[in-house]
Amino acid sequence: MTLLVLAASCCLACALIPITYLTYLTFIWPRRNPITSLPGPPSNRLFEMRHMTLVMDPRKSTHMHQHFVDEYGRNTYIRGPLPWDQRLFTLDPVTMSHVLQHTTIYEKPYPSRQLISGLIGVGMLSAEGQVHKRQRRVAIPAFSIQAMRALVPLVFRKGTVLKEKWMSIIKEAGVASGEGHVMDVCRWASRATFDVMGTAGFDYEFNAIQNDDNELLKAYVEMFEVAVSRQSGGWRPIITAYLPWLDKLFPNDTVRFVAKCQTVIERVAGRLIQEKKRKIAEAEEKGQVYQGKDLLSLLLKSNSSIDIPLEQRISDQDILHNINTFMFAGTDTTSLALTWILYLCAVYQDVQDRLRTELLSVLPPAPVESLTEDEIQSLYASVSESPYLENVIREAMRLIPPVHSSIRVATKDDMVPVSTPIKRKAADGVITEEAVSQIFVPKGTFIHVPIEGFNLDKGFWGPTAWGFNPDRWNDLPEPVKAIPGLYNHLLTFSAGPRACIGTRMSAIELKSFLFALITNFKFSPAPGVEIGKANVVLTRPYVRGKERAGSALPLLVTPYVHDT
Ligand code: HEM
Ligand SMILES: *[C@@H]1O[C@H](CO)[C@@H](O)[C@H](O)[C@H]1NC(C)=O
Ligand SMILES: *[C@@H]1O[C@H](CO)[C@@H](O)[C@H](O)[C@H]1NC(C)=O
User: Which helix (H) or strand (E) holds 216?
Assistant: First the structure.
């Protein structure tokens, strides 16, 4: 009897611990967090979904960011969906820099890492601490300037393949000379970047531009689509992000489908890794150095280089997870960038014409298909140095960053510097201004990283910040220089030690494809089609009224006939 009572009270005690902790997190912690005294949009709910929509939905966020700055100042308090999801929303460049630079304090929050690693494993994107450091260290040589330069011919030729494919589709459609054909640019850009990542990433031909029935390609594309871009929303993903084992216990269709894709990926990509290791070993036995230029070869070589201490080496599993990560982080981001640039060119015909004139001026007399590797390198050098192309890409990446926003969490209490006055909200709702140089951010506070917010901030970019004007890059306003960013004062590729590792690679892809497409086709809006934006992990285009069909960006594509 006493044993039974003892057992029962033990159970009760065990249940009490999580309940007490949840109660603390829900009711006590939020009230004690000093950042709640920063002003922000009103909220009086336990579960607050609206704030996330305000700052994450690209149809609202631009105006909302402006409204926040005008109304509440550059450091604002907003709420995530769960009661303990207390967020600092900052459009203060000094504050943002601090958060993005101090990666040992500000990590990616557990739920978001969980979502990513559940899909692609613990690669560079979702790892933290020593694991991340090791992976990034091994990967850096694979993304060096020289390594990227070696990829140029390979990427450039994919541009020609895409152009040829489009020409043949347009021909087959039987459109009269001088007339156009409506193509879903978003889908084609996606195939093209997957193809590039296959060859440049792991020396593997998906042939995705020609056909899309490759087993490995399908596993990746469908996994990302089902698990990310076709998210149904609701509470389940929010809960399973915290409690991932629930998915194992109660799998639904999505979970089962993802597991099936992962099995294919592990089998096929796993085999590629073993083959590559064998080739490298074979070359070594013959006293040679393996010549592979793809990221997988370089990762493997880097792992065995004497520069890397033994304890910083990575495993086969790490390699697979990083390949998955490159597929995840490097394909749709780049293809959406290309898609939005083509869209902007279609809407702004004058920009498109100027760009075409510039690119035609570097077109070689011989057909691009017949060029040698050296000739491609020198052609690419001219393309890459074309100033207007550079401006168009920068401006598009500013206006529609494919990654709309990100998030960090403070893993320690921290004093965060601020460069603009803090507004405080008293109990009676009256807002006062306070000139302080730092604010206290307790452990557990989330920090919203408004990428689009900084890119479109009128306080830095001036009154024309929301418009598309590539010429602005010839003469940037002075305040812009305060914005942190890996790439031209844009937060598009984030900043600091966790910034994008693939920026250079994406530039090679964008420039190669834009050269191939703009010199061979004219783009205009598809008649009767209205394009909308939605943020589904990435900022994607949709046809208004056909949102359910998934991302799409139909444009009218007309072959451009030039006399050479
Ligand atoms: C236009 C194209 C691209 C954009 C806009 C972009 C943007 C970003 C952003 C914003 C981050 C930071 C994410 C965060 O902090 O939450 C990031 C990280 C990353 N990107 Fe990119 N990216 C692009 C292309 C690529 C390419 C081509 C690769 C090639 C493999 C790549 C690989 C990565 C990786 C591995 C990380 C994680 C880095 C780390 O945490 O150490 N990205 N990217
Ligand atoms: C299945 O569960 C996952 C996460 O637990 C969720 O993201 C997804 O939307 C669910 N799928 C369906 C079809 O409800
Ligand atoms: C990286 O190097 C270590 C130490 O030499 C080795 O044990 C490990 O298997 C290597 N990783 C891969 C993926 O080859």
Answer: helix 215-224
Q: Kindly give the residue spans of alpha helices, DSSP state H, lying in 432-473.
A: 451-455, 458-461
Q: Which residues line ligand 3 (CB under 6 A)?
A: 277, 300, 303-304, 310, 313-316, 319
Which candidate, 79, 192, 132, places its Cα nearest to that of 517? Answer: 192
Per-residue pLDDT of 376-394, as tens digits, reads: 999 999 999 999 999 999 9
Contact 261, 219 (CB under 8 A): yes
Maximal C-alpha separation, the chain: 98
Please report the pLDDT score of residue 1 as a whole number: 59
Residues 6+ apart with CB under 8 A from 406: 108, 449, 451, 494
Q: Which residues line ligand 1 (CB under 6 A)?
A: 124-125, 136, 325-326, 329-330, 333-334, 337, 402-403, 406, 492-494, 498, 500-502, 505-506
Do the beta carbons of residue 206 and residue 195 sit within 8 Å? yes
C-alpha angle 473-389-63 in degrees, rounded to nearest 5:
50
Residues at the binding site for heme are 500
What is the sign, positive or negative, of the torsion defined by CA atoms of 114, 295, 552, 394? positive
The answer for 427, left when phi > 0, alpha when psi is -120 to 50, beta otherwise, is alpha
Closest residue by Cα to residue 345 from 333, 332, 358: 358
- Residue linked to tokens 């013959």: 286
Residue 253 CB contacts under 8 Å (≥ 6 apart), including other chains: none
Nearest-5° Cα angle at 288, 283 to 290: 55
What phi-psi label fits residue 121: left (phi over 0), alpha (psi between -120 and 50 degrees) or beta?
A: left
For residue 189, which amino acid is it? A
CA angle 325-328-334, nearest 5°?
A: 120
Closest residue to atom 8 of ligand 3, CA basis: 315
Distance CA 196, CA 208 (A): 9
Calculate how far, in angstroms, residue 415's C-alpha sits from the geometric centre of ligand 1: 28
Q: How far apart, in whole angstroms, are the C-alpha atoms of residue 56 and residue 404?
A: 7
Residue ID of nearest Cα to ligand 2 atom 4 = 237
- Cα of 91 from ligand 2 centre, angstroms: 33
Number of residues assigned to the chain = 564
Q: Which helix (H) or strand (E) segment is 531 a member of?
A: strand 531-536
> For position 165, what pLDDT does the model report?
96
Annotate 50-71 with three-state secondary structure: HHHHHHHCCCCHHHHHHHHHHH
Q: What's the CA gap between 514 and 396, in Å, rounded?
A: 13
The closest alpha carbon to 189, from 218, 158, 168, belongs to: 158
Cα separation, 149 vs 174, in Å, equals 39
* pLDDT tens digits, 280-312: 999 989 989 888 889 999 999 888 888 888 888
Question: Positive or negative CA dihedral for 114, 115, 120, 126?
Answer: negative
